[in-house]
Write a structure and sequence with these properties.
0% strand; 13 helices; mainly alpha; 72% helix; globular; 260 residues
Length: 260
Amino acid sequence: MTETAVPLSVRSASGDPLDGAVWRLRSRGCWEDAAALLEPRAAGEPRAALARAELRVERCMFTSEGWGRAEEALRAAESLAHTDAERGAAACERGYLAFASTLLGVRDRADEARAALGRAAALLAPGAPGRALLDFRRGLMAEHVSGNPQAAEAGYRRAHNDALGRGDALLSSYTWQRLGALAVLNGDVAEARHGFTESLRLREETGYLVGVAPALVALAEVEPEQEALRLRGEAARLFRLLGGVPRWLGPKLAEQPADG
């Protein structure tokens, strides 16, 4: 499992005080607490219902737990979606949940993931809000399920350019990370280091604490031994601080000394 296996529905906090509170909880891995804040609105507002579903799907990817609650929240969001944008966003989230189940070995739902992401592509035109996230997730499918790095890179680059153009720092952190990982495969260590460094910087700047440890581990893979040890030690401390999430990062840090 690599850090790229954890891309999320990326929305940074807006000026809404509730959005800010949700973001602070989410960024520390408190997904259910964040979802609870949205409960009053999620009963009737499509945006809030989708945001609640996103939180619970993200929890599944980070912890491999909570699948039933994620399905329940997603069905509620789908039932409230009326516009193409809302239906497309819900389909994108359904595709991502099916992808997560497949990737984490819970249940093979690859066909469902492809169908849902294809449906989202039909509803979300290029340049529409949510399209960059969709392109990124289709890139993940191409890389991790279909084994097609060329198609994956095309999707990541479309998402990357869109995210940079929109100022979406968190999605940009994920596109930088995936492009860096592909650079590793191509033997371009300098480009990989650049991508991983940018990814880490953006996660620190946005306060996305739960995503910092994976970014540190990714960067450690392309740094000299002494610096790599320091980065992994920092990642291990943060991993323990957050209660062992993301869960899939544990094996990578298992040999890390407690003092870093």
